[in-house]
Structure formats: structure tokens, C-alpha cells
From TrEMBL:
Residues 18-238 form the Luciferase-like domain. This is LLM class F420-dependent oxidoreductase. It comes from Streptomyces flaveus. GO terms for molecular function: oxidoreductase activity, acting on paired donors, with incorporation or reduction of molecular oxygen. InterPro entries: Diverse_substr_monoxygenases, Lucif-like_OxRdtase_Rv2161c, Luciferase-like_dom, Luciferase-like_sf. It comes from the Bacteria. Pfam families: Bac_luciferase. NCBIfam families: F420_Rv2161c.
Amino acid sequence: MATRLGLCLPQAQQYDIGRDVPDVARTAEQIGYESLWVYERALFPEPATQGLYGVPGLPWPEHYRSVPDALVTLTLAVTATERVRLGTSVLVAPLHGPFQLAKTLGTLDAASGGRVVAGFGTGWSLDEYAAAGVAPFEERGKVLDEVLDVCQAVWGPDPVEYEGRLTKIASSVVGPKPARPIPVLLPANTKKALTRLVDRADGWLPIAMGAEQLAAQWRQVQDLAAERGRTKPIETAVRVNGVQYTAKAYDGADRAPFQGNVEQIVTDLKAHAEVGLDEFFLDLQASTRDAQELKDVAAEVYTAARAAGI
């Protein structure tokens, strides 16, 4: 069975959100992509008081300077498509009020006919937490757990009742309900996050940073699932960040994965796909100049990947 392939929607500065998102979404579905994805970056602190990913001195990339809201972007793709799954990788869940987030995702799934995939993470930006004002950064894990609880309650049968630290829902009818149970996917970068994934989520959202590393991480997930007695399959969707496309081939052994011409990108994708995970979705937007180039490169990559047996 072929690996599912997805594409990240355009959220970088060079794209027109209202025009390019529906256009790229529609074209990607016509090409054959099976999913479309968005990410969340709430703001761009200037000057940056915290390095990228919390690493001191690591600069924030320019394409984070103006990122459209993830769920608005995904909504623009709903009516432009009929078949593709619509995923978040990731929503920084603790930046959102749990009830409103659950309600919005449920509505979006109902509107799309059951195509939403909820990828949640806890993020790393202190400035984003301060601006959102939902909870302190130090409580991010507890808030994510409450988001998972509230989603389960709100998406479930009426009457809905819930009482948590942030959220109190008196017995209520809450609709519209999702068209089907929304899959919840989580990253797992720590033992605690890995345990939450195995115990509470439908699937795993890793980042492709080398085929051997991905295989080792997948073994870790499977080992913990066996240890904790999980029998339900773990869905997997792998984000391929910052694909750097160039018409020319890179020379030399120091080429980073997913950098180069289409042939080199597909070679790297094939090596990662051999790990045996369900789906890979590509972020091509940083190295393409406009929506037309993004669509053209996406078509080339898809065609070459399928020809390579991916």
C-alpha cells in the first residue's frame, strides 16, 4: 500500500491568504495529495527575547514574521476541497481556551464532512503564552491534558458536563458535533509526552530529521505502547519541515535531508518512507516564490514520489 502524501498550505509572507490558500488546496487535491496541513505561530517578538525553540541565540526564521491563524487558514481550504484530510501540525493547544478550541474544531469537522485531524502540541515560546493569557508556560502540560478532556466531552454525546481547572461546563447541549470522531495526534519529545501519546492520543506527529532517527523514535513509541498494554493501532503522520527546493542538484555528502532538486527530495522521502509510517506531509512554502511555483513543485514531487514507489 502506498504511503499517504500530504502538503502544507501556504502561510508564509509571500502568499495571499485569501487567494492562494483555496487555490493551492484545490490544486493539491487534484494532483492527488491526501491531506493538507497548517501550523501555528502566534507572533514574532522583535527584538526576540528568546531563541527559536527556546535555544539561546538561535534566530527566528523570517517566515515566522507574519503567520496567518491556523484554523482560519484551514477553514479557507474546507470549501475549496472535497476529499483531502485537513490537519494541524501543530496547534499550540494551551494558547487556546479549551472549550472554544473544541467547539471550533467540532464545527470545522462538521463543515468538512469529517476530514479534520487535530494535531496538538505545547509549544515553546514564552511570548506567545504571555500574549494568549490562557495559562502560564509552566502549566502547559496540564492545560494540554485539559484540552484533551474537554475535546472528548464536547465532541461526545449531549448533555455535556465537565469541570476542570480552566473549564466548567454545566449540563449543556453543545453542537454541531464532529461528523466522526476527530483523530488527535501528538508529538512526543519527552518521556512524559510519549506516555500521554500512548495513553490518550490516536496517533503520533514526528518530524523527519533523518531516516535512522525516525526509525529509532518509532521503535520507542512502539515499545512504550507494548509496555503499557496499548492494543489500538497508532496512526502516524510525519511532518517534513522546510523542504529546500532548487532546480539544481546539490553536490557533496554534506547536503541536509530534503534539500536539492526533486530527485534528491524524493530520494530522501523514500528512505524515510521505508521506516513504514502511514503518511508524510511536505512543507515546500519556504523555498517557493509564489503560489504557482508551489503548485508546480508540489506536482513534480508527487509525480516523482509515486513513480519511485512511495
